[in-house]
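Problem: given the chain below (128 residues), write out its structure.
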Amino acid sequence: MTAEQALADLTEISSQVQAAVLFDAKGKVAASTLADAAPFVGAVQDLLAAAGEARQGSLAQLEAATAEGSVFVVRDGESYIAATTPPEPTVALVFYDLKTALRAAGPVKAKAAPRRRAAKKETEDDAA
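Solution.
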C-alpha cells in the first residue's frame, strides 16, 4: 500500500483525525492531507525533540493536548505519522488508527521531486 493510500484509508475510517502526515526521520514528507505539510512537520519535530530531552530518549508515541485539540505522533523505526484531532479524542483509538496506517504504508520514503522533461531539440528536419 502506498503512503497516500494509507492516509486515505486513515481519514476514511477515523472520524477523529482532521489532518495527517507521513514523514521520515529527516522530515521529508511521503504523504499528507495538508496542502503544505512542512510547517506542521517542523513543529512536530520540535515537539518530539523537546519531549525526548525531557524523557532522555526517543519516543515511540506522543499526544499533546490543548483546549483546541490534540496532536498525535507515532514512530516506527525511521517512519513517522502525525495527526491532529478535535478536543477530547478517544486517545487509544487514535493511536491504534495511526499505528495501523503507519504499518500499512510500510517504510516511509519521501516523495521524489517531479522530473523535468528534457526539452526537445529541434532538428534540421523539424525546422524545414
